[in-house]
Amino acid sequence: MRIVIAEDSTLLREGLSRLLADEGHEVVAGVGNAVELHHVVEREVPDLVLLDVRMPPTYSTEGIDAARRIKEEHPQVAVLVLSQYVEHRNATGLLTNGWGGVGYLLKDRVSDVGAFLTDLERVAAGGTAFDPEVVRQLFASTRRTDPVATLTEREREVLTLVGHGLTNEEIGARLYLSPLTAKTHVSRIMSKLLARDRVQLVVIAYETGLVTPGE
Q1: 213 and 162 Cβ atoms separated by less than 8 Å
Q2: CA 209, CA 190: separation in Å to the nearest integer?
Q3: Do residues 7 and 109 share a domain?
Q4: What is the overall mean pLDDT for the chain?
Q5: pLDDT tens string 126-181
Q6: If you placed Cys at 56, which of 33, 111, 138, 204 could pair as Cys (CB 3.0 to 4.6 Å)?
Q7: 154 burial via Cβ count (<10 Å: 0-12, 13-18, 19+)
Q8: Nearest by Cα to 135 from 101, 112, 93, 104
Q9: Burial level of 104, CB count in 10 A (0-12/13-18/19+)?
Q10: pLDDT confidence of residue 109
Q11: 136, part of any domain
Q12: Is a pLDDT exceeding 90 seen at residue 105?
């Protein structure tokens, strides 16, 4: 996998580069600000960008703004936000635009390197990976009243796996279904729950208890 890292902390950037290289990935560039990131993505068009939310010069929303721009201009490029903060102002737009290959993890809560690498690979494959705290803070005002009551048992199983960020291919393999059948289930669930995209399904899975933090 070809990866670009955008992180203003040189120590963390170099540490991530070494970790990913040891796992067989190619870190094509490491940059410290959003301007450099834009130029590198235009030049390299990597498979995935791993970036922080707050970067120079203002340390406010440069990173999350860059992530949205990347998905708008290069929707095939996966984006994994790795930050100390939940950026409320602009992160919701990134997570609810219907894009595949998007994730948002909190640095202080990444305690398992293996799980982090799994999340990274899932996002690169078009899936999602969200820290439960990110989901809780961003969507705390969108509580629903038992929206999964209309789902079949199989649809609940599929929704649970969507909540864990699995792709249609991964869901099919887990439930012994073809990817097309898994996709059909996801489409029906979205229709029943009036969800615009998979990210909304992730939110519903957490809000209804199908997926719980720490699983």
Answers
A1: no
A2: 17
A3: yes
A4: 88
A5: 988 888 888 777 765 555 556 788 899 999 999 999 999 999 999 999 999 999 99
A6: 33
A7: middle
A8: 104
A9: buried
A10: 85
A11: no
A12: yes
Q: Please, are residues 149 and 101 in contact by the beta-carbon 8 Å criterion?
A: no
Is residue 199 one of the residues assigned to a domain? yes
Domain tally, the chain: 2
The amino acid that residue 171 corresponds to is I
Q: Return the number of other C-beta atoms located less than 10 Å from residue 20's C-beta.
A: 19
Residue 174 lies in a domain: yes
Say if residue 162 is in the same domain as residue 102. Answer: no
* Same domain assignment for residues 197 and 109: no
- Out of 104, 131, 158, pick the residue that ends a domain: 131
Domain boundary among 131, 155, 181: 131
Q: Is the pLDDT of residue 182 over 80?
A: yes
* pLDDT one-digit tens code per residue, 58-87: 888 888 889 999 999 999 999 999 998 887
Q: What pTM was computed for the model?
A: 0.69
